[in-house]
Amino acid sequence: MKPQQRKTRPDSPLRNLPEDRQAAIIAMMEGPQNKSFAEIKKHLASDGLRVSENALSEFRSWYLLRRQFKEAEQSTDTLVELLKLDMPELSEEKLFRYGQLIFSQMALKTQDPAVWTETQKLNLKKEEQRLQERRIAILEKKAAQADAARDVATSKLTPEEKEQRMKSIFGLS
Amino acid sequence: MTATEIKLLRESILRVLDANSSIRFGLSAQALCVHLVPFGFRIVAPEAERQLDYLSGAPLEHVAIIDAGGFSPEVRTWKITTRGRNFLAQLGNEQ
Predict the structure, then answer these.
(1) What ipTM score was computed for the predicted complex, to two decimals?
(2) Sorting pLDDT into bands at 50, 70 and 90, what band is B50?
(3) How far apart are CA B18 and CA B85, in angstroms?
(4) Chain B residue with minimum CA distance to A117
(5) Which of B13, B22, B33, B79 best tests the A interface by mutation, with the highest count of A CBs <10 A?
(6) Distance CA B41, CA B47 (A)
(7) Three-state DSSP class for residue B64
(8) Angle of the B29-36 helix axis to the A113-153 helix axis, nearest 10
(9) What's the order of all strands across the beta sheet hosting B63-65?
(10) Cα A17 from Cα A15, distance rounded (Å)
(11) Which pLDDT score is estimated for A81?
């Protein structure tokens, strides 16, 4: 008997709607209409489109992010075109690389500046943590070397052997 | 992070990449980190890169690195693949 394969069903019906219909649904969620997901769900159901409130929430996140990335791409295209006019000697490969750099920077923008600040703070915190861990590792290594050196110093080895061991402990041999 | 949280993080990474409809340009790990915050994930770029490397590797191949030759690793960028989109579509329908 062949193993039963999971059937891949079509993607979210909201994402497959025409762009103007998607924009109309988003317009219901914001601005003067500012309807709740429950109200929009009811409205869509009356048009024969059955979706959950969770699906509406996910659609909103996806749509807004997509819109932002589209705007970033449009701005990138404009800047790359200007670059091309100003510097016609640039190869397509270089233009693409500049385009990717511009797009990457634009894609960093977020609707909520607090999110950006929070991300940067987190980066700094992680870096501080990494440095702290590095400091601790160095101190631990030094402490271990000191312990080993003390053991050698108090041992019954000959002065030559002690010198050799000490060099080895501190990585001088 | 627990195994469930890592699973959710990977799904969220795919969702952010999926929102990028550009056929040429990819998203950097830094940009991903910023857009993962609304999904409830506060991670730094190296962590995002670790997950992206996992998602781009076999057998998943849900994401792909954009080849923008000459870039340093700091500006590596990623795009979702068709396999990644199919995976998300399947997830969406199971919820």
Answers:
(1) 0.83
(2) very high
(3) 7
(4) B34
(5) B22
(6) 11
(7) strand
(8) 110
(9) B27-28, B77-80, B63-65
(10) 6
(11) 93
